[in-house]
Amino acid sequence: MSRHAPLRLALPLLLALGLSGCVTYVSAPAPEATSSAPEAADPAQDAASAKAKAPLLPSMLFPGEADELVGWRCTPAQDLVTAATEEELRLWSAQGGTRLAPAVVASGARYQQGDLSLWNKGREALVESQRGRLDCRVDVTRDALTRAEHPGVMFRGQGNEPGWHVALANDVPELTMTLDYGRREVTLPYRVTTLDNDAGRVILASGQAARPFSLRIEAKACFDDMSGQPWPARVTLSLNDRVYRGCGQGIAP
Question: What are the structural domains of the chain?
Answer without folding.
Answer: 38-61+145-250 (no CATH), 68-143 (2.40.128)
